[in-house]
Amino acid sequence: MEELASYKGHIVAFPLPLQGHINPMLILCKALVSLGFSVTFVNAESNHKRLLAHISAAPSTGIDFVPIPDHLDTPIATVDVHNSNNLLLVRNTVRKMRADFESVLKNIVSNVKVKFILSEMSVGWTQETADKFGIPKVTLFTESAASLSIQYHIPELLAKKHAPVRQGCPDLQSIDYLPGFPLMTTADIPYSLSAHAEKLDPGFAQRVERKKVLLKAKCVLVNSFDALEHGVFAGLRAKFHQTVVPVGPLLPPAFLGTENGSNKPTTLPGMWPADDTCKQWLDRQQDGTVLYVSFGSNATLTMDDFVRLARGLGLCKQLFLWVVRPTLVPGSSLDELLKVVRRNSIYEGQSCTVSWAPQLQVLLHPAVGWFVTHCGWNSTLESICAGVPMLCWPLTAEQNLNCKFIADEWKIGVRLLDDSRCIEEVITGVVESQGDSQMKTKVKKLKEAAIKESKLITKTIDDALSSKSRS
Ligand code: UDX
After folding, report:
1. Total number of domains in the chain
2. What is the pTM of this model?
3. Of 3, 118, 196, 309, which is most buried with the most CB atoms under 10 A?
């Protein structure tokens, strides 16, 4: 344990045990190691195994990985958290991990001084643990600064009855008090703050507490970059007087091209092994001709929507590569889903399907012209950093908020679901229009800004942790 001590100090990290959270936390920890910190990365056992399998193929990270029990029969990260019962199950399970985490921490503090605990807002008890052990907590927020701002504003949103929002409610209200935001309506408030979610989550009112927990952290590091959300970051710091720092995009340096100056193939530890055969299919297509379709690791579609999308993709006549996860449509087998895709493809070779793609490599492939996405925050950042515009179909969580910024603020994508047009018309309209090149120019500018900022990430983090950050 002695070797844990480093000249900058020791950090104990604990990510929310879900795919979209572990990878950014791991990349941040690697940056911390390069700054001279030592890190213990505490992780649910099933995720730990996957991480080690992935990392064993890569150079040493300088991080000590420590597993704690999942407390579930299935790997926690594969649980569909968009099902109400499952969500509560995952919440309770993460609560159970507190005792295991504290016992790891106790062992560490008996050997080495811990500089801070690095965890997420959604693992609320880590602040209590930090207080109990007298160690500062630094929060990593793995979503956008806008989503973070919503968390700070929950008490105000509730007081003004702008949340919870009834989904599909025609009576939209404008929201103009969120600093740095474009004009919002209640439809843009994250789905996770909907009346539906309230029903699922009896402790909804306790969300007000999140703001207090957030404000207690030594600082909040956000997986976003300043050029993307400058106004929101500035607004947050001015209104809440807290150190809120953009440290993103938390993506592999090889993907961003900051390692050796050029983008090169890279992978992230995934839920399932990536099927590389799609790369050979992509190699056979012309530049910019393929729509890449993926809904992340956890979101689900109804069978009706799956068929609607399959039909739209077929009829728009574009080539498409679709990640059809076995869990994408609850209650339907992978075989059934693949039959629907085949039936709706209108010419031989129009489509390629895989259960899990090497997404970073796919997005960097010259054949890929557009990303049909659920607007998960990792996918959004990856698309921007690959310079690929988006066709948005937000499904859950804060994906509608991300979509709002993609379509209306940054103008690097369009909504796929349009009241007046069907999917094939939206796709054809955008791919064949002037808008295509304008969006591509805009997304490439953001990509350059992201890469520029990511080169300064270690300095930004260093300044934030020593409280010298921009304020
Ligand atoms: C969840 C929420 O849905 C999202 O709204 C929130 O912002 C983060 O947590 P998830 O649904 O997994 O995340 O989506 P996303 O954030 O986009 O992350 C998916 C990750 O899986 C990405 O890093 C992507 O590269 C990777 N992926 C996805 C693959 O590697 N292969 C695939 O086939 C699909």
Report:
1. 2
2. 0.93
3. 118
